[in-house]
Design brief:
two-stranded antiparallel sheet, mainly alpha, single chain
């Protein structure tokens, strides 16, 4: 048990786990804890590339679902379910791209 100095008297408090008080949590939100900047940059580029691929795939699904003339023919052609799924994929890809940007944290 830790002893904490009170006003004019000592009081016992529950055991504290070192490093997990409110001040350290607030400080961790502002301090950058990235130690390997090359790894961080590669992860951001990889996440952005994955986001771009997901967006492009989602756009193909939307085009096939809408039965657009330039879209490749498949079982997805003229099926409205693929329009919704493609729009969700585009949204997920945009979120991935936004998270990969330095301001997206």
């Amino acid at each position: 048990m830790d002893v904490v100095e009170g006003r004019g008297r000592e009081r016992l408090v529950a055991p504290l786990i070192r490093g997990f008080d409110a001040r350290s949590i607030a400080r961790a939100r502002t301090d950058s804890q990235v130690t390997n900047h090359r790894y961080d940059r590669r992860m951001r580029i990889g996440l952005a590339a994955l986001g771009v691929l997901v967006v492009l795939g989602g756009l193909v699904w939307v085009a096939q679902g809408l039965n657009l003339p330039f879209a490749p023919r498949s079982f997805m052609s003229a099926d409205r379910a693929w329009v919704v799924l493609g729009a969700l994929a585009v949204l997920a890809g945009v979120v991935l791209i936004w998270r990969s940007a330095p301001f997206g944290r």
